[in-house]
Amino acid sequence: MHTAPNIFSYRQYWAKRFGAAPYLPMSRDEMDMLGWDSCDVILVTGDAYVDHPSFGMALIGRLLEAQGFRVGIIAQPDWRSAEAFKVLGKPNLFWGVTAGNMDSMVNRYTADRKIRSDDAYSPDARAGKRPDRSVVVYAQRCREACKDVPLVVGGIEASLRRIGHYDYWSDKVRHSILPDSKADLLVFGNGERQVVEIAHRLAGGENIKQFTDIRGTAFMSRAIPAGWLEIDSTSIDEPGKLIEHTDPYAMATAESCEKSEAVKTKSAGNVDEKVIEFSAKRLKQHDRSRSIIRLPDYEQVKQDPFLYAHAARVLHLETNPGNARALVQRHGKRDVWLNPPPIPLTSKEFDRVFELPYRRQPHPSYLGAKVPAYEMIRFSVSIMRGCFGGCTFCSITEHEGRIIQNRSEKSILKEVETIRDTVPGFTGIISDLGGPTANMYRLACKSEQIESACRRLSCVFPDICVNLNTDHQPLINLYRKARALPGIKKVFVASGLRYDLALRSPEYVKELVTHHVGGYLKIAPEHTEGAVLNKMMKPGIGSYERFKEMFEQYSREAGKEQYLIPYFIAAHPGATDEDMLNLALWLKRNDFRLDQVQTFLPSPMALATAMYHSNQNPLRKIHRNGETLYTAKGANQRRLQKAFIRFHDAENWPLLRDALKKMGRADLIGNGKRHLVPNWQPEGTGGQAKFKNSRQQPQNREAKNPRQARPTGRSIKRTSRKR
Question: Residue 712 phi/psi, 5° resolution?
């Protein structure tokens, strides 16, 4: 694995003499109180400013402050003019722009493209505090306010839109956000290393146009410099007729990880075998750090869904910091140049980032208004970041990476004590001790050499890799020590659980169920049908069944009545109406009634989004005679798939009756236990009353997306509803 300097090893900037601010200033009055005449860096964000490490701009701001820089924050400015962007004056070094903790389009619109009525990242959940495509709009206003100041964009919106990407809300392939925002640099992934280096180099007098060598950044380029080997992506992952080229993505066994890119296949058709061998030798001998892969041009991926799916596949296969090569994609007369991803933080660095002097509260200017996203994590502790699950619909891997970054046990326990001693309203209950996935803490590849060479999209699909360490003992020890701290009454685990991993450690499941479940445990089987689960890169439903048995056994032994809350997705690419019917029948057999349903939302850059747009499967090589996926796209198709999961809702019965008749399954309509929907309709339901004089169709409540997009609603078993 490549190494990087410790982010706290830089010589501090001269402004360190001012010390740490109570809150990073949001006004000139606050700057005057701190004795500042100017800010070195001004961060613009679409979220309310909450001084807590779970909020990206607070984390980056405090990190830069620890480097000695004076950092101001402009949170949720009025974007209709540049005046709100002048409130802190001109930044000495650079603007930092982000949409916030969520993509602004995901934040504002449901999967049905309807405007949400609230915003969890705004004071009192007020909607309308940020523009659509916030990064582009904020960047334009920053240029208007101070056009000669370097501009850096980052955060999840910039990260997920770093190349030409399908945009669900406009239903078209859009440019990389870099040329649209006219930023000097784009920071993707976790941004600590990049932002610290950018700040120190600018403070040292360098021109930002020279910053072409920072991992985890993208910039605009007019030409490939001398000394670089340019590789056409279609020569390594053929998107046309399937010809067996040298495959640098081969990952058949652990042994293959340690081998170079050698020719493993013979020529096909009339392809010259010597040419293939020469190309493989050239790639093998060339320095990978000086190799760059050219993706299809923006105009090509815009016009050709096959090339779009191909580009998405290549990008995802070049995300391991240990072996990823730079990528370029032509936009007009210039290239968007993506450097390899950043090197993950060490535990020592990660600890220090989370131990910076956060106030762990919203800025006082909000006058006590509640920020729902803060209320949710107010008494929770992040113990790790990243996810090696690789679920195709999820944004975590694309942004945080597959390599788990862990905090030390000591640092985590220290934060629990800090919450206990300093956060107002604490009652002794830690609401969550987790991360993107609850039980990936300290799980990693057994070999650094194999990890640095691996190109698998998931460590747990189609099965758990033999090279993955699945020892849950460090996490068990952490749970025990956390709940043993004085003043701590209860420690819950509310993060999503990877149950196929948990099955490897019955002791962990027993510990979790006995001490850290508050009656309900959320879990995400997502579907029951193997063909759909394969497109999601999720384990089969049998794993869920085995975990359910274990969960119920340990609940009984603990003398507790506890329930699993399973989440399912409707309208995921590859899911047919027959698949959704089978899921509905499974739910009925298991006596589940889902209160909220997650309809698939095609977030930028996700592999499932490439499936949705192209009807191709980028988990395999893309070729024009390959598999074509069925995807529910129209409003009626998507509503029907959601209706199958909510088969118990009388509003959906007329729609389901019609669908079942067309599918030749009228045998499921009736009033018996074996039937899915009854043949009678309650008065005032199914559009008979409320929607009598309107074309509007009844809509189920839509849970917000994520991991960016985990659903927030519960799926309650009927037996628990009787309690």
Answer: -105, -10
Query: Across the chain, how many H-helices and E-strands are there?
Result: 26, 23
- How long is the chain? 723
**Contact (Cβ atoms closer than 8 angstroms) between residue 258 and residue 234:** no
CA atoms within a 13 Å half-sphere pointing along the CA-CB vector of 43? 30
Q: Determine the pLDDT at residue 397.
A: 87
Query: What is the C-alpha separation between 299 and 301, in angstroms, rounded?
Result: 6
pLDDT at 510: 98
Domain boundaries, the chain: 14-221, 229-332
Encoded tokens for 37: 């005449």
Q: What is the DSSP letter of 303?
A: H
Angstrom distance (rounded) from CA 683 to CA 691: 13
Q: Which of 426, 354, 416, 340 is nearest to 385 (CA)?
A: 354
Residue 286 zone, left/alpha/beta (φ > 0; ψ -120 to 50; rest): beta
Contact 678, 653 (CB under 8 A): yes
CA angle (161 as vertex; 158, 164 as ends), nearest 5: 145
- Residue 479: both structure tokens together: 């749970």
Task: Please give the single-letter amino acid code of residue 183.
Answer: A
d(CA 609, CA 632): 12
- Kindly give the interhelix angle for 473-483 and 506-515, rounded to the nearest 10 degrees: 20
Q: What is the pLDDT of residue 609?
A: 98
* CB 235, CB 241: distance < 8 Å: no
Q: Residue 491 corresponds to which tokens in the numbers above?
A: 């420690």
64 sits in which H/E element: helix 56-66
Helix (H), strand (E) at residue 568: strand 563-570
Domain 14-221 is in which class? alpha beta
Q: What is the DSSP string of 96-108?
A: EE---SS-HHHHH
HSE-up of residue 99 (Cα within 13 Å, Cβ side):
26
| 55's tokens | 């909020």
Q: Which of 322, 152, 294, 283 is nearest to 221 (CA)?
A: 294
Hey, what are 674's tokens? 């074996």
CA distance 110 to 606: 17
CA distances from 331 to 219, 222, 369, 401, 579 (A): 12, 10, 44, 26, 40
Q: What angle do CA 657, 663, 666 make, to 5 degrees?
A: 50
8 Å CB contact between 235 and 102:
no
Q: What SS3 state is found at 677?
A: strand
- Provide the pairing of β-strand 520-526 with 291-294: unpaired
Residue 366 DSSP one-character state: G
* Strand (E) or helix (H) holding 329: strand 326-331
Residue 205 sits at φ, ψ, to 5 deg, of: 95, 5
Q: What is the DSSP string of 452-510?
A: HH---S-SSSSS--TTB----HHHHHHHHHHHTSTT--EE---SPB-HHHHTT-HHHHH
Q: Spell out the SS3 assignment of 502-521.
A: HCCCHHHHHHHHHHCCCCEE
Instruction: List per-block mean pLDDT (blocks of 10 residues) for the chain, which spans 723 residues.
Output: 90 97 98 98 98 97 98 98 98 98 96 96 97 98 96 98 98 98 97 98 98 98 94 78 38 41 36 41 65 97 96 96 96 98 98 98 97 97 97 92 97 98 97 96 96 95 96 98 98 95 98 96 95 97 97 97 94 98 97 88 96 96 87 96 97 97 97 95 75 38 40 32 31
Strand partners, 497: 523
Q: Give the whole-angstrom CA distance, residue 269 versus residue 209.
A: 46
Structure tokens at 510: 């027993």
- Taking the C-alpha atoms of residue 33 and residue 200, their distance in angstroms, rounded to an integer, is 26
DSSP letters spanning 643-658: HHHTTT-GGGHHHHHH
Q: Is omega for the bond preceding 462 within 30 degrees of 0, making it cis? A: yes
Instruction: Tell me which H or E stretch contains 566.
Output: strand 563-570
pLDDT at 716: 34
Tell me the C-alpha distance between 480 and 399, whole Å.
31
